[in-house]
Specification:
The protein is mainly alpha-helical. About 80% of the residues lie in helices and about 0% in strands.
């Protein structure tokens, strides 16, 4: 079964509504049966799927998801929103600024854009609608700013990329800091311009006393990213251990400090985290199965030699890979796309002399854009669901924020010092 045939069948299954994980598994099994080895590979299906989903670094995924769910259940998200409101709410379109700022804070703990939308959107989207913002604008700014959660560390897509490519997860996290902050600031500029155009309201006037009050109330919440990222960046803990620390810290802060976490809420958070984890890990397992088949028939080497035959210019290769990942992101969940595609293109990346950490940021941004662009658009769909807004109406507004993500993609791709400066400074 050729790579083209696999891609077409997979696309057809996704278009008719078959869940992506099931589609990946079906295509992999059919490819194995019709391939050179016949049914001989079928006894290994369970083992390959199990092995693909049980890598130690991948344990960080359910732990970060659980930490985000606990945060949402204990008022930590609400405190971060209050602080962001005190800092930037006085600007025209202040609630949209609050949404973007809160996403920057929340991204440093959850690592998931969908978790970001679920936690912040349920609070901020109704608040924006009440203050006169359109449903489309409220959903768009919440959805696009949530994508910062996959750029700013910790990031679940970066963890998966690190496992698939053999890159340092810590270096990937560090490389995401500058692009993530730049993206957030650019989104604030766009939000301000749109707010001026539509005469969206400001919130209450800036008061230093209110900033101090909300900062004091959110102090323990702000300590969470210091604990997580500080431990990871200094080398005291691995990314997986840092995720474990995030869960413990969220439980202690929510239960002992804020006293808003009881057994019922913890159970609800664990069920929510388990449900989200099951979706991601099933994608990981099914993608690993198809990836194992493609590796066995040497598809990665064929792709690398084919593109190198067209051009050996590194910048041209990056342009081709950007286009490829942008298309892939339209149809595949980021976890599935990374596990399926990254092992295929890594020989090409290495042959072209592209730094794998730099390439990891490029992949993450491409797939972050895919979270905002139909038909799949997982994050955009979640935001539209919360806002009860039509996805196409939201997309008309969201195009301005997606333009920021595309701008960051171009900057990260062709000005590698932007993502790599801190990595080179502290880790190489």
């Amino acid at each position: 079964m050729s790579l083209l045939a696999i891609g077409l069948v997979l696309l057809a299954l996704v278009v008719i509504g078959v869940p992506i994980a099931i589609s990946l598994g079906l295509v992999a099994v059919v490819a194995m049966v019709t391939g050179p080895g016949g049914t001989g590979s079928l006894p290994n299906v369970g083992l390959v799927m199990f092995s693909g989903a049980t890598s130690f670094p991948l344990i960080a995924i359910p732990l970060f998801i659980l930490a985000g769910a606990i945060m949402n259940a204990t008022g930590i998200s609400r405190r971060l929103i209050a602080l962001a409101s005190a800092l930037v709410g006085f600007i025209r379109g202040g609630l949209s600024m609050v949404t973007i700022s809160a996403s920057l804070f929340f991204a440093e703990i959850s690592g998931s854009a969908v978790a970001d939308v679920a936690a912040l959107g349920s609070i901020l989207i109704p608040a924006m609608k009440k203050r006169g913002y359109s449903r489309a604008f409220a959903a768009a700014v919440t959805s696009s700013s949530a994508t910062l959660a996959v750029i700013i560390p910790p990031s679940i897509p970066m963890i998966i990329y690190g496992v698939m490519s053999g890159s340092s997860i810590v270096e990937l996290f560090v490389a995401g800091i500058v692009p993530g902050v730049m993206g957030g600031l650019l989104m604030m500029v766009v939000a301000y311009v749109l707010a001026r155009r539509h005469n969206f309201p400001t919130e209450q006037a800036f008061q230093l006393s209110r900033v101090w009050e909300t900062a004091r109330d959110a102090a323990w919440a702000l300590l969470l990213p210091v604990i997580i990222l500080g431990g990871i960046f200094t080398g005291w803990v691995t990314a997986t251990e840092g995720a474990g620390l995030a869960v413990v810290a969220a439980i202690l802060i929510g239960g002992l400090v804020y006293k808003e976490l009881d057994a019922k809420q913890l159970r609800k958070a664990m069920l929510e985290g388990g449900s989200q984890t099951a979706v991601v890990m099933l994608l990981v397992a099914a993608s690993a199965l198809l990836g194992d088949y493609l590796t066995e028939v040497r598809v990665p080497q064929g792709v690398a030699s084919g593109i190198m035959g067209l051009t050996q210019d590194r910048w041209a290769i990056l342009l081709l890979l950007n286009g490829f990942f942008l298309v892939i992101g339209l149809f595949l969940h980021s976890a599935a796309a990374i596990i399926l595609v990254v092992p295929i293109v890594m020989p090409l990346v290495q042959a072209a002399g592209i730094d794998p950490v730099h390439f990891g940021l490029i992949v993450t941004l491409n797939l972050g854009i895919g979270q905002q662009t139909p038909p799949v658009a997982s994050v955009l769909v979640t935001a539209c669901s919360v806002a009860k807004a039509d996805i196409w109406e939201v997309s008309k507004v969201n195009v301005w924020f997606v333009a920021v993500l595309v701008t960051m993609l171009v900057i990260v791709t062709y000005i590698p010092i932007v993502p790599m400066a801190l990595v080179e400074m502290f880790y190489r």
